Amino acid sequence: MDAAALATDLLAAKTAIVDRVMTEDYARHPELAARYGERGRALYQRDSGHHLAFLAEAVAHAAPALFTDYIAWARSMLAAYGVHVADFAETLRLLRWAIREQFPGAPGIAMTASIEAALEQLPKALAAPASFLAGDAPLDQLARQYLDLLLLRERHAAAELVEAAVLRDGVPLQRLYLDVFQRSQREIGRLWQLNRISVADEHFATAATMALMNRFLPQFAVHAASGPRAVCCCVEGDLHELGLRMVADFLELGGFDCDYLGANTPRADLLRSLAAEPPQLIALSATMTFHLGAVADLIRQLRARPELAQVPVLVGGRPFQIEPTLWRSIGADAVANDADAAIDAATRLASRGAGHA
Ligand code: B12
After folding, report:
1. I want to staple 114 with a disulfide (CB 3.0 to 4.6 A). Which of 58, 133, 253, 267 is the partner?
2. Contact, 325 vs 331, CB < 8 A?
3. What pTM does this model have?
4. Distance 287 CA to ligand 1 centre (A)
């Protein structure tokens, strides 16, 4: 049985497995009802569904790191909401048991290999990951000030701060993007994960940073209508567009002519518009591991169309950083882990024109 088929079977049994795990856990540990209260069961069900969704991607792509990374993240997120690490470990053990019951023999063993790895790592996983802005790198201080202002909802002061850094002090735009914007966004994520800030705080910071990027780009980009055309989009379902937007801006600064389509691009519409005018490059972003299926599917569809089969596909986003070989197994032509590296990869791919890596 191949990996993709195992993952499909696992997902098809998701509801049954989650129900079984929860019933067994509450039966073995009656104290859970008092510990987690009335909403406990609903949250247990939701979270176990997430565990299974990430596990299925690790199985589908034969990439256990996708699951172990998720478990390290979930461990701190759950801790921030009062879930005991011992209870989390028990859920994972029961998940392993229920999957093996449901899929006896080799399939169940293959499906649960990542759970074994995660359980081994769990005692070492941090209750709270370290800050992204704790260092003393040149722009750390600027990033800290910028984030502090955004968390105070001081959007105009934040804008003045970074504008002065670029226009007065000569900080290169690319450094501002990567060392200040990207890292403060990651810190925002960490603070949300630890339940220290709200989704509203995150939305405010993301919108303010996107607005600043809109203001900066026209001041620096040389319009390159004759440069290679790149279509940049997030796969269907994925809402994280700021990273892709950064990539598109860097490509524009590097001489590309980018059609930036943004978040959650519907697959059918994308394929139609690509076929109408095939670009020299497609830049695809996925942040959530559970959107990797959409990436693989889209690439398969591109390869199946004669007019698009040779257009190179560059991928990027969080799961590709976690598992460095994933781009290849998913069928892309190259990966880049940040907007800087994206310029080199895109230039290489576009200059090669047709053909795969
Ligand atoms: C802002 C944000 C959101 C916003 C996005 C809004 C927007 N307009 O973009 C919203 C609120 C929609 C959101 C939703 C969710 N989010 Co969110 N989000 C973030 C946050 C805080 C910042 C993202 C960002 O702007 N990063 C900065 C950019 C510059 O970095 P980047 O995205 O990594 O991009 C760089 C590289 O990855 C690469 N790259 C990216 N794409 C591409 C493409 C190509 C072609 C190339 C070459 C390179 C490349 O280059 C980029 C530039 O250098 C991150 C935290 C984080 N660590 O990133 C969480 C984070 C990604 N989110 C997370 C989660 C859990 C979610 C939700 C599931 C929450 C929920 N329960 O609903 C949903 C899922 C939504 C969905 N269906 O996609 C978790 C993921 C954890 C995990 N284990 O996977 C994170 C890590 C937060 C955390 N620390 O817990 N989120």
Report:
1. 58
2. no
3. 0.96
4. 5
